Every structure is written in C-alpha cells, then in structure tokens.
C-alpha cells in the first residue's frame, strides 16, 4: 500500500511539474537599449520581448472587451522608459523621468506607445505598416536618423512595424555666442 501511495504521489508531482513548467523558447526575454548623449544623460528602453500570437491578436481585434482587457493589463506594462533629458516622441512631449512602457492597439491595427507615470498616461501614436515579414517576438530598435537631433524608435511584432520620430531638443541646432564653441 505504501508503494502505491508513493508511486501515485510521484506521478502527481511529475504531472504538476510538466503542467506548470514554461517552455523557455516562448517565455518573454528581457531586453535593454540605451542612448547616451554627452552632457545630457541617458535614455534607456527596457522591455519584455512578448511572443507573437496571431490567433489571440485577431480575436482581440474583433472583441472590444477582450482588446481592452489586453491593452489595460498584459500589454500596459511590458517595460520601462527612463530618460535623463526631455524628448519628443511622435510629436508628443515626454519630460525627463521614469515611465512604465506599454503598447496599445485598436481594431484597425493602429498602435500606440503608452508611457505611464504618477497615475497619468502619455499616449504616443505610431505609424504602422502591416506588410513586414513575420517577427516572432516583440522587438524595439532606437537608431539615429538623418538629422543630428532626430532618432527613430521602431517596434516589430507579427507582421507589424510601428515607428515614431524621436527628437532630442538638447541636440537641436542652435546659435553660439561669439567666441564660444559650445
């Protein structure tokens, strides 16, 4: 009787371990990207690289309640944006500070960055294209653009590529008083 009880306990424990275990290939990885500007400081973007699930996304697009639940919970806080200088992202002023980072979308595939701090959200509309090759995990990129004070933030997931211009007022062209080089 003790052997049967011990064996059944082991089977239950093994089943629980298999059921509760995570497949490391589909668990979100943590990423951090930074931009350092001499004299101004650092901008750091940290996030969880969520796994793209096309059926769940399509279902949420068609169901307002499900989409709102996804936008207000799972996708609301996927990371952080810390900036030691003011920036303008997608035409929206973002004062220096620390923000939670989230993503929001609507039924028409319009994506937005959501930065939260002190109970208030800064919502930044993104330009979105839906003809990119499929990307299995959410990824962000922050890279220079053509102008000295301009960068691009781009997010990719599934077939979507969403992006916005990032302006750094500290780097904007300006006049120097005569005899000064800075």
What would you say this structure looks like, in words?
It contains 3 helices and 12 strands. The protein has one domain (27-170). The protein has helices at 2-20, 54-62, 64-72; strands at residues 29-37, 41-49, 79-83, 87-89, 92-94, 97-105, 111-117, 120-125, 127-129, 135-144, 150-158, 160-167. With 182 residues, the chain is an alpha+beta fold. The strands form 2 sheets. It has a 6-stranded antiparallel β-sheet, covered by helices on one side. Strands 4, 5, 9, 10, 11 and 12 form a 6-stranded antiparallel β-sheet that branches. The longest helix has 19 residues, at 2-20.
How is the topology of this model organized?
Blueprint: H1 2-20, E1 29-37, E2 41-49, H2 54-62, H3 64-72, E3 79-83, E4 87-89, E5 92-94, E6 97-105, E7 111-117, E8 120-125, E9 127-129, E10 135-144, E11 150-158, E12 160-167
Antiparallel strand pairs: 1-2, 2-3, 3-6, 4-5, 4-12, 6-7, 7-8, 9-12, 10-11, 11-12
Helix pairs in contact: 2-3
Summarize the structure.
The chain is an alpha+beta fold and 182 residues long.
Keywords for this entry:
single chain; six-stranded antiparallel β-sheet; 182 residues; alpha+beta
Helices and strands: which structural class? Answer: alpha+beta
Strand content: 35-45%
- The run of helices and strands is HEEHHEEEEEEEEEE
What would the average pLDDT be, to the nearest integer? 87
Strand tally: 12
First-to-last CA distance: 85 Å
Which stretches of 5+ consecutive residues score pLDDT under 50? 6-20
From the spread of the alpha carbons, the general shape counts as elongated
Radius of gyration, whole Å:
22 Å
Q: Tell me about the biggest sheet? A: 6 strands, antiparallel
Domain unit count = 1
**Residue share in helix:** 10-25%
């Amino acid at each position: 009787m003790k052997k049967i009880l011990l064996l059944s306990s082991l089977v239950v424990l093994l089943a629980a371990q298999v059921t509760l275990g995570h497949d490391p290939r589909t668990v979100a990885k943590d990423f951090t990207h930074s931009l350092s500007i001499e004299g101004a400081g650092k901008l750091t973007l940290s996030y969880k690289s969520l796994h793209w699930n096309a059926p769940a996304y399509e279902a949420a697009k068609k169901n307002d309640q499900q989409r709102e639940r996804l936008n207000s919970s799972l996708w609301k806080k996927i990371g952080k944006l810390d900036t030691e200088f003011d920036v303008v992202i997608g035409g929206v002023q973002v004062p220096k500070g620390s923000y939670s980072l989230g993503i929001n979308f609507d039924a028409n595939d319009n994506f937005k960055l959501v930065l939260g701090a002190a109970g208030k959200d800064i919502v930044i509309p993104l330009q979105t294209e839906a003809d990119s090759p499929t990307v299995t995990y959410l990824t962000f990129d922050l890279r220079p653009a053509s102008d000295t004070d301009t960068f691009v933030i781009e997010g990719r997931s599934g077939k979507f590529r969403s992006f916005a211009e990032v302006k750094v007022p500290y780097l904007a062209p300006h006049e120097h008083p005569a005899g000064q080089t800075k």
